[in-house]
Design a protein that fits this description.
It is built from 4 helices and 7 strands. A hairpin with a 2-residue loop joins strand 1 and strand 2. Strands 5-6-4-3-2-1-7 form a 7-stranded mixed sheet, sandwiched between helices. It is of the alpha+beta class. It is globular, with a radius of gyration of 15 Å.
């Protein structure tokens, strides 16, 4: 994802997450950490022609500068967001985006990947379970302003969950 993708991503974000959509500033802030040798974020977009039909983001923590591995490796990653246009639900695009994030976590040498998922988003939970994520707890009232709980999920060793999902073009 690049800065010029933010406006179309925001349109999709507001459609999919009307109550708790990310702001423009949140995307700008994360993208500021997505390039260069000290990058701690990876954001991708899925396109169909000129149209963005999905996006996803990953943040890593525990790099050497943050008290992690002395070799520059990260100790863990957190999936920040995965979103797929409604007309693309059920096409495998979510799996493709998740694969890209797990590939990035592997490139960052992360030993585990965490995420939060709305408790009412069963479709997403099933996707994460297919990739080996396990539920480890809840965050009460995590999603605001709706006061919806989050299911916390963890995947150990993201490199074992990579698969060859094919389809829509994914761009960083």
């Amino acid at each position: 994802m690049r800065w010029w993708d933010i406006e179309p991503v925001l349109e999709l974000e507001k459609d999919l997450f009307p109550e708790d959509a990310w702001s423009r500033g949140m995307f700008w802030s994360d993208l500021a950490h997505a390039r260069g040798p000290g990058a701690t974020r990876r954001y991708v977009v899925a396109t169909d022609g000129d149209r963005i039909v999905g996006y996803a983001g990953l943040a890593v923590a525990g790099t050497a500068s943050e008290g992690g591995g002395e070799d520059g490796s990260a100790t863990g990653a957190d999936i920040q967001t995965i979103a797929v246009a409604r007309e693309r639900w059920g096409t495998g695009l979510g799996a493709r985006l998740l694969t890209e994030l797990l590939r990035a976590a592997t490139d960052f040498d992360c030993s585990e990947v965490m995420l939060e998922c709305r408790v009412d988003n069963v479709r997403a939970q099933k996707l994460y379970e297919r990739f080996g994520f396990e539920a480890i707890g809840f965050r009460r009232g995590y999603y605001q302003p709706g006061n919806v709980d989050a299911l916390v999920m963890r995947l150990t060793d993201p490199s074992t969950s990579l698969n060859g999902v094919q389809g829509t073009e994914i761009n960083g």
